[in-house]
Amino acid sequence: MQVLPPHIVCNLTNWRHLLTLVASELHPDEYVNLLTPKRHSTLLTSKRTVMIVNRARFIALLFAILTPLWCVVDYVVFPFELWVQMTILRVLTSVAFVALILLCKLKPTRLKLRHTHQALFALFLIPCVFYLASLYLLDVHAVTGIPSIILSAYTFLPFVLVAGLSIFPLSLAENLLLTSIILLVQFASMLLRLHDQSWTNFFSTFWLLLLLAGTSLMAGASQLAFIVALVRQAVRDPLTSCFTRRSGEELLSLQFSISTRSNTPLALAFVDLDHFKLVNDKWGHEAGDHVLQQAAEIIMQIIRSGDMLLRWGGEEFLIIMPDTNIYQAEAALTRLQLAGLGKRPDGENITASIGITERLQDKVGDLHDLVNLADQRMYRAKENGRNQIIIDD
After folding, report:
1. Residue 76: CB partners within 8 Å, gap ≥ 6?
2. Whole-angstrom Cα distance, residue 337 to residue 294?
3. How far apart are CA 31 and CA 390, in angstroms?
4. Residue 176 belongs to some domain of the structure
5. Do residues 351 and 385 both lie within one domain?
6. At 357, is the secondary structure helix, strand, or coil?
7. pLDDT band for position 374 (50/70/90)?
8. Which helix (H) or strand (E) holds 196?
9. For residue 63, is pLDDT > 60?
10. Three-state secondary structure along 212-268?
11. What are the DSSP calls for 41-79, one per residue?
């Protein structure tokens, strides 16, 4: 029986552990989150973007400090002309890292997925350019002797970059794209130095880099799986699977900022179940929980995929409806009324009092005022007899 090499056995074991983790931590419909960021929820994208950009800025700061410090070693071992050229290259690289740090300094509410990709691309492109340029200079000056030993330190940079991918919670598509760039750079560097090494060293080095890339991919996917699971547990109400009020306020703030910057409509709808206290008092809290679950499930079926349902408190729900004017929101909530919100234990229909506001229509410039206005209209719907929608004053 053929025995696999230890490093392959180790990688297979790691992948098996990852698959076990995914199976236990993620829901079946969340697996797609590990493949591409396109299906990530707004909150997941927001949390991951802040994490990745902050880590990219920290790594850029380390590179910006450490890259020029190596000039001392270069001065000791390289000829003066080569040292001057390498120093200029290092200073330019350090300046590029500083520019990256400054360009990525945005408020968390303004960070988007494209900022994540731009930061990651720049973070790995800068050292790749430095790596190829430094190898070219070293090859032109035909470094031999003791300096050639220092040269070997430069060849470890692609391995450092691939290993660095493991600190970011990346999807499979993002990780493969960045890994491909590093592998192409490594391939180009090997062709540049092919006269100094054999084909055996060429392929063995490349194979080792591929194994390290596989481990980094596994680590990134594992981090992403944990974040997906933690975000779900932190932001979802365990009873209704709606967003919690705390996470909903964060979503609301984000959507309000987007609406204000792009001058697009943003509608909010407060939905309060009628006579809910009667259900709890007469049939118990278990019946009340069932009523809430029914109502939340029906609301999520009626609203669009881009809308967000929050459990604001007790029997109150808040629906965030981006790019929706007040009449479109009213039409959607009318469909909800016609569909019904489920049944009480005695068979009676569950109804709701609903108040709707829209940022542009109501000329509201403050988020809290917009929420309060929707709340006030919902209470007016209750005072006017319940089971109705109020959209103006």
Report:
1. none
2. 14
3. 40
4. yes
5. yes
6. strand
7. very high
8. none
9. yes
10. HHHHHHHHHHHHHHHHHHHHHHHHECCCCCCECHHHHHHHHHHHHHHHHHHCCCEEE
11. -HHHHHHHHHHHHHHHHHHHHHHHHHHHHTHHHHHHHS-
Which residues are within 8 A (CB) of 225 and not within 5 positions of it... i.e. 6 or more apart? 18, 21, 22, 25, 26, 34
* pTM of the complete model beyond 0.70: no
- For 101, which DSSP code? H
* Token pair for 282: 């007469």
Query: In the chain, how many domains are there?
Result: 2
Burial class (CB in 10 A: 0-12, 13-18, 19+), 80: exposed
CA angle 270, 274, 278 (to 5 degrees): 140
Region 207-215 average pLDDT: 89
The pair of three-digit structure tokens given for residue 55, joined into one six-digit string: 């880590």
Residue type, 148: S
The whole-angstrom separation of Cα 204 and Cα 155 is 14
The answer to whether residue 273 is domain-embedded is: yes
Q: How far apart are CA 212 and CA 123, in angstroms?
A: 19
DSSP state of 27: -
| Residue 118 falls inside a structural domain | yes
Indicate which CATH number applies to the domain containing 255. 3.30.70.270
CA nearest to 216, candidates 169, 153, 156, 155: 169
Q: Domain boundary at 215, 235, 255, which?
A: 235
